[in-house]
Amino acid sequence: MTGFISTVRDVGVVIVAGGSGSRVGGKELKQFRWVAGKPMLLHSVQTFMARQDVGMVVCVLPREYAGDPPPWLFQCDVDRLLVSVGGRTRSESVGNGLDDLPDDAEIVLVHDAARPLVDAATIDRVVTSVRGGVCTIAALPVVDTLKQVSADGNVVRTVSREFLWRAQTPQGFPRRVLVDAHRQARVERIDATDDAALCERLGIPVRVVRGTERALKVTDEGDFARVGAMYGVPE
Known about the structure:
Elements: E1 11-16, E2 34-35, E3 38-39, H1 40-49, E4 54-61, H2 63-66, E5 81-85, H3 90-100, E6 107-112, H4 120-131, E7 135-141, E8 146-149, E9 155-159, E10 165-174, H5 175-187, H6 195-200, E11 206-210, H7 221-230
Parallel strand pairs: 1-4, 1-6, 4-5, 7-11
Antiparallel strand pairs: 2-3, 6-10, 7-10, 8-9
Helix pairs in contact: 3-5
């Protein structure tokens, strides 16, 4: 008789893909463009759906696409896929995705679609830490020398890089903590470039775990080539 292992699908994922990608240019949305063998957004959706503990992935798309998503998105497990409408800000978009997660998603991961090559090991480090009850983000230590520069381009000072890390995604949270942080931010009309900042401002501890250089954020045209070069190459 073989043993049976039951995996509780208590992880919900919000993939933020609601931006216009204006810094890249062109008519096609950045998150829909092909990179490293498939549409950028599809990389992230399939990576998270490969986890047995993920019960639902919510893709937050611009309003004009939410009602008619690209057909390639449905190559995924449609029973674990929802599409939500993006908001005016990143925080509003994440909040919309949070509202659409099922009740049994006790852990929430927030991920930027612009980081298509995040690996399973990074995701696992974040989830394992959150299961211990701690808000956790993937990040990498700063290795470059940092300069503070004035408006006219002159160096003001060299900033110590000790204890400085570059935040990445996914960022993971106990659901109730993230919901409360977003609720408070809405009341105070506060937006943030990542969800950890909404927790930090309330004094909620946020832990850092090691990210990966593969999780490069696609911001401008040159990043497409860089991500393509990383594809399939182990770190």
